[in-house]
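Entry 14. Ran structure prediction on the chain below.
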Amino acid sequence: MEKKRILIVDDETEVTTFFTYFLRQKNCDVIVANSGKDVERLLQNQREPFHAALVDLKLPDSNGLELLKRIKAVFPGCEVLIMTGYSTIKSAVTAMQWGARDYLEKPFDDLDSLENVIDSVLESSFQQADELSQEAAQYGIVYSPESPMAKVAAIAKKLAKKAIHVLIEGETGTGKELMARFLHGASNRYQQPFVAFNCGAVPESLLESELFGYEKGAFTGALKARKGLFELAHNGTLFLDEIGEAPHSIQVKLLRTLETGEFMRVGGEQVGQSNIRFISATNRDLEHEVEMNRFRSDLLYRLEGIKLAIPPLRERAQDIPAIAHYYLEKRSSTPCEIDSEAMALLQCYHWPGNVRQLINVLNQTLALHECQVLRSEHLPASIRDKVKRQTSLSTISYGGVENAIDQECERFVESITRNVKSIEGFDFEYLIKRIKMLEGEIGRTIIEKGLTETKGDRQLLSKKLNITKRTIRYILNEKGGG
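Output, structure tokens:
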């Protein structure tokens, strides 16, 4: 059997010694590097590829993200595991987005879990993309191989077994609860309860008793004691949807429970203890809510152990055929197809209500039209008219970005037309100044997103965007970037 060549990169002798002994017991050829310079020298001189690399995120002269890019550039097939402390887990997740296989948390207390991760790398038995897609579909998460959701699902799968809280961000209807159920189902707690609760669906006066429970006689109508969600979800997962709706009084108590695991029923005197995996979701910008003093910053830091952002449907229009066919098959045993013209309409529509709206439209359409082939004329007139209007504004883009831009511009012009009653006293210079500021913000956002996708390769980014590298530098420097 061929020996696996493993690279260990860490400046701590105890760590390199531990992994050298551990991996040689598994018949591996181990090469050790203590710095970024050592790695660079090895990459220049090595002719045989490394099968895997265990890379510390923080080194005296470099960092794991940069080394990840270098190793993958020289040996694309090398599986990279990032080693990190708890305080740098967010960077480790970024590393997975850049191609790392997984991350290992220091100190390595759970040796069984550590061995399982390393064995999976050595055996090259990682889950194929189509298998992951099938597993996600069991929870209603449907996407195509080229979709941005594929990367989100892959990261969620890797995070599922980690003992860390997750904050899911996304617009209404994108499937945040489905992602929470997927995280629970792929975790070590999958046999334990999954309890979901929408913080915006209950009046503030009842929210505390719903979360923490209450004792008999705690208030009028409390005829017997009742367990709260933290008790019901013990050893399992508690999913709090629309966490941004929680009032300040509840935020304080949530923070304490997240920090200590302790809670107290309304009207009670005994402190209870709950062991839960906490997943929250929001359609709000919680950082903005913190700035506006509507959300506690300390609670946000606790919630966002890891962030998962669910892209809106308009940014993954290539998934619409797969989603539509999945739900049509699930809805009825009677076969129903969608013709190409109707599918094109579905892909061109903006879908402000996202996947939930798409499913509702399909259900309503089929309820009104019993047909074996769903055609464009069967779709609601509002959708047909809106797509026709969009098409008159610009060339149809199946990626959805151009449509989104056109719609925002259209709404902006309509807003000015509606609100500017007279040009008397109108600050035209401010309008132009603000538009120029927005231009810079949008440009920087696109460039930064592009650099993430191209793993920092500015030459490749300039080709993709059809701009010069000098333009990239100008846009970044304009806002103080480099």
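The mean pLDDT is 85. Will compare against last week's run tomorrow.
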